[in-house]
Amino acid sequence: MRFKNPWVSFLFWMAISLLYLPLLYLIFQAFLENPNDWRSGFTLKWLIKLFDSPALWGPLLNSVEIGVLSATLAVSLGTLGAVGLSRISGLLPPVIQTLIILPILVPEVITGLSLLLFFLLCRFDLGFLTVVVAHASFSASFVYFIMVEQLRKLDPQMSEAAMDLGAKPTEVFWKVTLPNIIPGVMGAWLLAFTLSFDDFLISFFTSGAGLTTLPLKIYSLMRIGVSPELNGLSFIMICISTFLVLMLVSKEQSRKWVLRG
Amino acid sequence: MKTPSVIPSSAWIFLIWLILMTLLPFSLILGMSFLQRTDLGNIVFAFSLKNYQQLLDWIYIKVLLKTLWLAFGATISCLMIGFPVAYFLARVQGPLKSIGLILLFIPFWTNFILRIYGIVSLFGSNGLFNQLLASVGAPQASILYTRLGVYIGLVYNYLPFLVVPIYSSLEKLDPFLREAASDLGATRFQTFRKVILPNIKEGVLIGSLFVFIPMLGEYVIPDLLGGAKEAFLGKVMVEQFFILQDWPLGSAIATVLSVLLLGALWLQNRWTSKNQQPQTQELGHAI
Predict the structure, then answer these.
(1) Confidence band, pLDDT 50/70/90 cuts, at residue A188
(2) How many CB atoms lie within 10 A of CB B121?
């Protein structure tokens, strides 16, 4: 359908193009012979060079490992919470509702600083584990809300029937509830992985000196200045992130969350 | 109504996790903000309001005013750019609606650091913008490492978070309101000003607050796009922790920001619960 007011339509497409311009230029820049001259011609040599360099593989592997572990932790916790609370989620006292939404609502800077303080006071060594736990601490709430919605769609009579037939609550969960919500669990896992993979700020605060994820590597290179290595890493990061988002969008149950930001 | 006493044990694992990993760390920040530190950076366990008093010093007030002003300008710009975007998305029908929403959000699910780097490579001294200026013989424009750089970064990164609340307020509007207004002879502008705007103003205001307050605490944008000279509240806060080793003062700033945010949340809850009155009634008064 054509939009009635051409000005609104024009402004919309204008804004969208401006949003994409920086990212498209980053992709373009990764292939430039000389990254500081947009007319210098294209080359693949920087990207090929990057694939042999430890600057890519170490941080990438760290990011993936942290993503997998924190997503698994967050999905376990969030799903447990949702299974327990989904029936009464509307009736929960406001204190508990606020507690659950807090990790989503609070700016990352404050979450990161508070977790840093917590880890330091507990005398935990900052590194791989603290980053995994920190990522899970904010993505568990996202998982919770996705799973509550999934469970609401589920027919409650199914688990009641199982109980009537003599199944214990744990059996009901493993044999009836879980198989029915698996698509939601997978969507939530993917969302938690994406949140972790893309996270910069919380990793920045909780990783200590030794650990480097891909966003942290890009940040540290950025402080030095524009380089072909940095452009290559940015290109790879854009590809992975876009791939993850498109996977998420194609999954019905997480689409709403992606669009909500 | 069910009370927490009937919360099943499986949910307790999640709730205890939240208490340990969210509530406890935030309480530590809150508690820390009332402590003091020695000149060597050691923490002294003595309750005082000194940190909050220190925030009223002229140097911090100056930083605060600068930050408020910049974040305010960025929020207004987000509103001005975001409004037509939200309006388009709310009014358009069919597949274009979901395509538009997806197009709006993909850039924001790519990495935050990349978006900043994108701005650096567009506006840096060797960036595309300056290359284009040089190719027509114009002098270099220094945008990066100035206030303007921070401003561009803020607008760019927060835009969709303001589009969403405007969009959902517009979606909730009864489509007959507009028709009724035009049947009663209102021009498009009158309809907008007297019918649409009054009905969405609370949603827009809350949305703006949820963009404005986190902007104040922004650290990476002023750090990477603003250069060393630009003081910014969020940057000052993080530097208290990492550079100046004054955790109590940094915690006090974080606490103030969190309280502001909780205030906005409270306001939102209040307004959404009272907002059930029929919109059509107001229409009669408006025209």
Answers:
(1) very high
(2) 25
